[in-house]
Amino acid sequence: MVVALGCGGRVARAPMPAPAPRAHAEVGVASWYGVPHHGKQTASGETYDMNSLTAAHRTLPFGTRVRVVNLKNSRSVEVRINDRGPFVAGRIIDLSRAAARSLGMPGTAKVRLEILSTQAAPQEDLFAVEVGTFADRSRAERMRRQLARRYGAAVSVPTQGKPVLWRVLVGRTGSESEAQSLARRIRREDGDVKRTSIVRLDSP
């Protein structure tokens, strides 16, 4: 299985653009990334340019255009999703340095995301539940084996920034709602899992 990773994943085919409803909105914490990721490969296969208006998101298809509004100062910027992340719990989008500067956010900020357009994927949508991110690969493998015995499909995949982190993903489902159901079941049944998030699996 090929899983696209933030800041240096494997290449996924670029889908054709298609319109999307503007009604979808998401509110949460935004962060940004620059050096040392500048010039490295993103999860979509593009080279990351911290001076371009791009961003990383866990589930939106590559090529999706999103308006990001800083709820503190009302400044907004339009970005294109070309990477996966952020990998910090509680954050919903990871902006390029240029996008963060447009929003006037030196660090993190509470934002609202508005989808302007998305892209139709040439292959089926696949989602998984991220149950943990570890600096220690052996800990990630122990959790992967434990959850695989109970829930079936489970993988541990590395990010390619520095330091390398190991993400444990459980499940492989064709709908985000099914992944949400699995996430609720895991939180209910497994005391070792404190937080979960839904991620899109991008395959060529």
Assign the structural class, choosing from mainly alpha, mainly beta, alpha/beta, alpha+beta, or little secondary structure. Answer: alpha+beta
Number of domains: 2
Beta-strand content estimate: 35-45%
Q: What is the name of the CATH class of the largest domain?
A: Mainly Beta
Poorly predicted residue ranges: 1-23
Count every beta strand, where a strand is a DSSP E run of 2 or more residues.
11
Summarize the structure in short.
The protein is built from three helices and eleven strands; from the N terminus they run E-E-E-E-E-E-H-E-E-H-E-E-H-E. The chain has 204 residues and is an alpha+beta fold.
Key words describing this protein structure:
about 200 residues; alpha+beta; Barwin-like endoglucanases; 2 domains; six-stranded mixed barrel; four-stranded antiparallel β-sheet
